[in-house]
Amino acid sequence: MKKIKLSLNYAGFCFANGKHVVRGDSKKDIKFHALFGLIYHPEKSWILFDTGYTERFYDVTKTYPNKIYAYATKVIVTKDCEIKNQLQQIGLSPSDIKHVIISHFHADHIGGLKDFNEATMYCSKVAYNDVLKSNDFFAFSKGLLKDLIPFDFNQRLVFIEDIATIKTDNIFDFSYDLFNDDSILVYNLPGHAAGQIGVYIETQKNNYFLVSDSCWDERAYKLMLLPNPIVKLFFDSWDDYKSTLIKISEFSSTYPNVLIVPTHCSKTTSRLVSDKIDLNVL
Ligand SMILES: [Zn+2]
């Protein structure tokens, strides 16, 4: 694999009921950090994997029906922790971001999309078609806030399936080599959301599989502990969720040297993030 640089950081968080995250856990609220990845690729330049929350979340949930989303999910985000400001701290401006890889379209993953006006956006066809076909009024109940998507999104959108070469994979059947240079492999991880994807990358120091929300807690793939069945209400497919989880579990035991990173698992991510973006840690 071609080695690239990675930094992982948080852009806001929400509270989740611990009992929903892992069946049988206490119902006490736990922090669900909105993790994003900043990647530096020697030829493609700056790339984001997801964009976390921004204060735009508050703007787009001021009125009904989206207001119901804000009632149900307490989101905490300030200007300071938005990606745009974290990038500024290391001397980057939003226009330096040339590519944004979207794992899926839930609000905690696309909150910052509108900041990156010069970036090409990448997602799976299934994920975007699911957004297009979702009912405008009820989209919020599936975690979608369409107002977070840039107006010119269609002009800058590239479907991963249309540009990437396919590599066979023993566990997932295949992956997409996004830039056809063995630097970023994209895996289909359906279940939590339609067309959800994750990325596998290698840095000089380690190997990472960013699995987005295909599980919320590392105990899910390590011990096959499932979330509370109540989450079926807003998951795209429970059967797909379970088969994706089985594959991640198999991946983890086949490749113990790969760090599997579920977006919202604090136990995994707290040792990977730093106060300031740093591309020399991971
Ligand atoms: Zn999420």
Explained architecture:
The chain has helices spanning 18-21, 56-60, 66-72, 83-88, 107-110, 125-133, 153-156, 160-163, 218-223, 238-254, 266-269, and strands spanning 5-17, 29-41, 45-49, 75-76, 97-101, 120-123, 157-159, 165-169, 173-177, 184-188, 197-202, 207-212, 258-262. By secondary structure, it is α/β, with parallel strands linked by helices. The chain has one domain (5-269): Ribonuclease Z/Hydroxyacylglutathione hydrolase-like (Metallo-beta-lactamase, Chain A, 4-Layer Sandwich), CATH 3.60.15.10. The strands form 2 sheets. It has a 7-stranded mixed β-sheet with strand order 4-1-2-3-5-6-7. Strand 8 and strand 9 (173-177) form a beta hairpin. The chain is globular and about 45 Å long. The model has no long low-confidence stretch (mean pLDDT 94). Zinc ion binds next to helix 5.
Give the tags.
binds zinc ion; globular; alpha/beta; seven-stranded mixed beta sheet; single chain; Metallo-beta-lactamase, Chain A; 11 helices; 282 residues
The number of E-state strands comes to 13
Which strand-content bin applies to the residues?
25-35%
User: How do the helices and strands follow one another from N- to C-terminus?
Assistant: EHEEHHEHEHEHHEHEEEEEHHEH
What's the alpha carbon Rg, rounded to whole Å? 17 Å
Specify the overall morphology. globular
Widest sheet: strand order? 4-1-2-3-5-6-7
